[in-house]
Amino acid sequence: MADEQKGKGMVKEITGGVCAPRGFRAGGIRAGIKASSQKRDLALICSEKPCVSAAMFTTNRVQAASVLVSRERLARGSCRAVIANSGNANACTGEAGLAAARRMADLAAEKLAIAGEEAAVASTGVIGVPLPITVIEAGMDRLVQSLRGDKAGHDAALEGIMTTDTRKKEISLEIEIRGIPVRLGGMVKGSGMIHPNMATMLCFITTDAAISAPLLDQALRHGVNRSFNRLTVDGDTSTNDMVLIMANGEAGNPLIAAGGDTFEVFQKALEYLCVHLTRAMARDGEGAGKLLCVAVRGAADEGIAEALAKSVAASNLVKAACFGADANWGRVLCALGYAGIPFDPAAVDVCFASRRGSLLVCRGGAGLPFSEDEAKEILLEDEVWILVDLGGGAGGGEIPMPDPLNLGPGEAVAWGCDLTYDYVRINGDYRS
After folding, report:
1. 161 and 33 within one domain
2. What's the CATH code of the domain at 84?
3. What mean pLDDT comes out for the span 9-37?
4. What is the crossing angle of helices 316-323 and 302-314, to 10°?
5. Helical H runs in 56-150?
């Protein structure tokens, strides 16, 4: 059921993360931002050459200082470095927090000998606690010295942004544009406080593609809307969400400055990267044991399908049933029904599916006889699909498995996870 393997086509997965594209370096250190933690907590990613950039940020009205500062600096469509910390969100910290965020970005720019406006800043961690900027200042020389242009540099930076994550979430790709190899690399952190729009995350993407700033922004928004904005873990949208892409043109491909075949190749590769990272975050949701994928087809348009799929993926009752391997399809219909989208309940088919098989449990809005043992076997897998057809299209007793990278009209996929006891345990003592 590994849908990131579908629709690969011209995309080849490689190693190196954000350092796979030419001209990028990354590093990370333990600065001691959160005294109780022994992990790396400060990261830096930079390009040797100027970059065009694009970014998207949280839609929460309460926004961290790093979001406010980076939004301002990235408005010009150019960014060459990002410094990020874990252990402290620097959110709800007033003017002192804004000053600390600006100082953090300026420190990175000074050490890298680049213009201040070319450095962005990101933070993640506990809200409402002053950022210990003096600790960051003291670690800057070590941070710059940690920069490397290989997988080790990527790994160190990735550890530096992780909080409750239990596994690394990363990918790097190679495509060809006019016969020239072009690479993309990405890393993301995010396990809890995840809900569209955007899903809680810090995501940094690098590419050596030569592409104009407007088209880079267009490709990023397309990829984010089909991936991170369709992800939910717990219904909470963070104050610190940020996704940033930097493109330095070092691949040497002809500049992508207009729509067409070359832009479509790049956009599809970026979407592939975003979907891969989205699935990784859903699989690593706080306390999660299962990746939950919800596919809706037969809608009047993609937006309707997306809204319905997200409603099911966000349902705590659906998530709890998934945790208990309970084929409670009535909760799926209920979640569809309160999404605020008109549809005919009497035409809906529902399947549960996993690598163990597919089981039609509802046809035409009514339950079907099925084996509870077979259903449990399907739902006990670590990746479970809920397949919904709004038009009663379950021919042959099943609903076709979608390819999220090649969706048809009226189709959408949303991602989430099950709701477990561990989610409460993790979030009951997050500040300590």
Report:
1. yes
2. 3.60.70.12
3. 93
4. 60
5. 65-74, 94-112, 133-145
Choose, from 58, 200, 207, 278, the residue flagged as catalytic.
Answer: 200
pLDDT over threshold 50, residue 326 = yes
Select from 155, 170, 70, 160 the least CA-distant residue to 117: 70
- Confidence band (pLDDT; 50, 70, 90) for 36? confident
Residues 6+ apart with CB under 8 A from 105: 69, 70, 73, 83, 116, 119, 120, 121
314: its two tokens: 């966000």
Contacts of 284 (CB under 8 A, 6+ apart): 165, 166, 167, 169, 190, 191
Average pLDDT over residues 211-228: 96
| Amino acid found at 67 | V
Domain termination residue (choose one: 264, 283, 302):
283
pLDDT, tens only, 266-321? 999 999 999 999 999 888 766 568 899 999 999 999 999 999 999 999 999 999 99
CA distance 116 to 410: 45
Write out pLDDT tens, residues 419-430: 876 666 655 564
Domain that holds residue 420: 291-428
Cα dihedral: 222, 225, 228, 233 (round 10): -170
The H-or-E segment that residue 358 falls in is strand 357-363
Q: Cβ distance 188 to 307 under 8 Å?
A: no
**CB–CB of 288/418 below 8 Å?**
yes
93 is annotated as an active-site residue? no
Backbone angles phi, psi at 224, to 5 degrees: -65, -40
* Strand pairing class (119-123; 24-29): unpaired
